[in-house]
Amino acid sequence: MQPSTATNLWFYPCYRRSPFFAATQKAGCQGYDIYNHMLLPGGYADAETEYWHLVRDVTLWDVSVERQVEITGPDAFRFTNLLTPRDLTQCGVWQCKYVVLTAADGGIVNDPVLARIGENHFWLALANSDALLWAKGVAINAGMDVEICEPDVSPLQVQGPKSKQVVQALFGEKVLALKYYDCMSADLDGIPVVVTRTGWTGEVGYEIYLRDGSRGEALWDRIMEAGQPHNIKVIAPSEIRRIEAGILNYGHDMTLDNNPYEVGLGWLVDLDQEADFVGKKALKKIKAEGPKRKLVGIEIHGGPLDCWPEAYWPVSSNGNQVGHVTSAAYSPGLKKNIGYALVPIECAGLDTRLTLETPDGKADATVVRKPFVDPKKGIPKS
Amino acid sequence: MQPSTATNLWFYPCYRRSPFFAATQKAGCQGYDIYNHMLLPGGYADAETEYWHLVRDVTLWDVSVERQVEITGPDAFRFTNLLTPRDLTQCGVWQCKYVVLTAADGGIVNDPVLARIGENHFWLALANSDALLWAKGVAINAGMDVEICEPDVSPLQVQGPKSKQVVQALFGEKVLALKYYDCMSADLDGIPVVVTRTGWTGEVGYEIYLRDGSRGEALWDRIMEAGQPHNIKVIAPSEIRRIEAGILNYGHDMTLDNNPYEVGLGWLVDLDQEADFVGKKALKKIKAEGPKRKLVGIEIHGGPLDCWPEAYWPVSSNGNQVGHVTSAAYSPGLKKNIGYALVPIECAGLDTRLTLETPDGKADATVVRKPFVDPKKGIPKS
After folding, report:
1. By the number of CB atoms within 10 A of the CB, which of A161, A190, B121, B241 ranks highest?
2. Chain B contact present for A174, CB below 8 A
3. Which residues in chain B have Cβ-Cβ distances shorter than 8 Å to A6?
4. Where are the domains of chain A?
5. What top-level class would CATH report for the domain A21-66+152-242?
6. What's the DSSP call for residue B312?
7. Is the pTM of this model over 0.90?
8. pLDDT, tens digit, 9 for 90 and up, residues B245-300
9. Cα–Cα distance, A243 to A336 (Å, whole number)
């Protein structure tokens, strides 16, 4: 399976390179996405080969494009809680939380992983939008004493069932004590990092946030060395595996035009907390009225999809166009085509039949439960 | 001359397509840039061929990536003036202004063309950053009654010495009355547009802002038809011609880390106006102290450059690295290599000698005046 049709992308200074760029070239990266104004590796081998490596062994990804918004200063806690509907009194130091940032109308500005690495020291590891500008804008008249910047921090992901052994070899026993969404500071022979028990897969995984861009090659080589006995391979973020796991991709499955309730992220909105946050009033109203549309899981019938959607596929119900497919892929583990569609609430019920317009013609689909893979069971490994 | 090395870019839904996308494919677009989360045509023929077409005849560009921030509501004038250091009391209805948006520290958030198409109706035609998020963020606690959105507006550029004849054929005599940076509303057999006497070249040119995305193909075809007698060709934005003209490219020649004074845009900052704007205090201080570095014009000695920089080229003075080249190209009109470098103020004087590290080895350069081409004289046409 190929991702989609390719065109040419010319390298320019405006596409920033990660501290691992040279390593990704050496590893045979075949193309890049542009994400947060940076080059994001898009693939080294075909997507299915990369997928099996991820679910069977262990993989290394350059995700430096997850730029950080760093918030510090005496009011950092209060300000960060103003940016997100999640109740941050529930987030201790050295914990992470998956959060959304919402606009005044409840629209999703970004869906970062938040890491609290000090009482008043927060990182937001961004999805693909300039949420640094958003945060700086909100701060203008907020009357709070905060510093907001993009620090020299570049994450890698180490994902797959054997990732535990790799991080143990690098950081020792203490890293195994990290619970899901915990994080810790570490020093790898002078390379400063933060390690988090997070990732963009349903597999066991870690992220290693490099805190000194000049040490990219050294960190990369250390990880590859530690991973060698475990058959580590360099891959791109796995579109297939993240869909199986029910994970959303900002810019595809949700945008500023979507609120958390309609894309299944209502659990990130704590309306009952005392603190005010941007979008609280709008989200209260949306919740009370119920969302008008919903991002649903779909199973697409017919043979394996050749490639992922290059643009949104129109979705029809009873002959009327009602929505669009936001993501879709053939799952080699589940041996079927899965994806997401944004449809009116009337078409969102389980077992609803939908018709898709794909580049290869019409296809039938059925609304199904997501995630597609139970995180506790995982997927069949063959 | 080729732009630079190419890699693969896979098409995805997150890269939005313009209303003219199909037309750009039909016109033989060979690659795309990603700009404001959209596909921006990067080239149809080699850069030199496109350049000569632009300076001799007339050209059509899909620049729908110039997304608009639309600001309306009772306080739209006051709010827009809060976003930019330019004194907007000097901007009448149906006038445009080139502006910068600045952050609290004076850093440049974006450098849009502002169009005032009503007393309290503004468009900001964005360069490559999510300034919609910035504007929405600033509005949160500004206490002003405004609506901020991205409207269904997609600009095209019609640029080149024969562009006057093309827009005259489309819109009649009245369009010829437009002075530089004026704009007007028009209707082309039911296709709603705004026409501005602006462009990203030193040539005569216009922008046609389509106000109904469903009419992209119709508008494109009408322009191509009107341009046929004048030898119109579809090209990408001309890197060469904009450098000759002294025009800056956001993300290359300036970023959030630069203030207007150091990149030669101090003339966009009206510190003496009564209105407050974001960054006023910081910019007053920067102006009083004088900028610490400067974006200078450079002439690069030696044979014609093969391609444009793929990443910033380091710049040295007396053996010490002091800055970097942000843009460079061989100008076929001037028959020399020209570009910009960001250097400390001590190295910014005319005739300063600099050493560049290019992928082909060291190159000598000299600081020269910009723009490289006098807008009144234009460039030799052969």
Report:
1. B241
2. no
3. 8-11
4. 21-66+152-242, 68-149, 249-368
5. alpha beta
6. P
7. yes
8. 999 999 999 999 999 999 999 999 999 999 999 999 999 999 999 999 999 999 99
9. 12
